[in-house]
Structure formats: C-alpha cells, structure tokens
TrEMBL record:
Keywords: Ribosome biogenesis. InterPro entries: KH_dom-like_a/b, RbfA, RbfA_dom_sf. GO terms for biological process: rRNA processing. This is Ribosome-binding factor A.
Length: 106
C-alpha cells in the first residue's frame, strides 16, 4: 500500500472512530481519540483515547473495547475496505502528563 493511501486510510479511520465514540459515549463522559496507529499491513489498529472526567477512564476504556464490534460495523458501512483492522483501545497517559507539565509551567 502506498504511503499516501495508508495516510488517507488512517485519517478516515480516526475520523470515523472519533465520531462513533462521541455518539455512543453519552453524557457521562467525553471520549477523545488522541492518536490512531495502524500497522503497516493495516490488520491492527491501536487507538489512544483520553477521557473526561479522568476518574471515568477505566469505564470508558471498557466501554470502547466492548463496542469495538459495533465500531467495525460503523466503519464497514462508511468505508469500502476489503479487510478491516482489529481494534485495541488504550488510555493515552501522555495527554495527562502534558497537562501536568503545562500546569507546572504556569
């Protein structure tokens, strides 16, 4: 797969994932996709999320992993792909560290 096609696919997958999570999360928490990593063969995707409020992070991570099958269906309906990647969600700890550094620098 060409680099340009890989980047376009990555961008589309990240956008669709963010839309899906925002729509499905409800009012209890805000889930933001902070990074989306796609393996070179496009078979695995690692999705880093941040959650507000922070104490809902584990519940949001569990929610996202439980809904990964629905996410695949959402992407399948919106993108024409021969093979969809498997999804793994992780909490983006780097975002928390960046926020702490910003607070210390103020």
């Amino acid at each position: 797969m060409s680099q340009h096609r890989h980047e376009r696919l990555l961008s589309s997958l990240q956008r669709l994932t963010a839309e899906f999570l925002q729509r499905q999360a409800g009012a209890q928490s805000v889930i933001t996709v902070t990074d989306f990593e796609l393996s070179p063969d496009s078979k695995r995707a690692t999705i880093l999320i941040s959650v507000f409020p922070d104490h809902k992070g584990l519940a949001a991570l569990d929610f996202a992993n439980r809904r990964s099958r629905d996410l695949r269906e959402h992407i399948k309906a919106n993108l024409k792909l021969r093979q969809l990647p498997s999804f793994q969600f992780l909490i983006d700890e780097g975002e928390k560290h960046r926020q702490k550094v910003e607070e210390l620098l103020k």
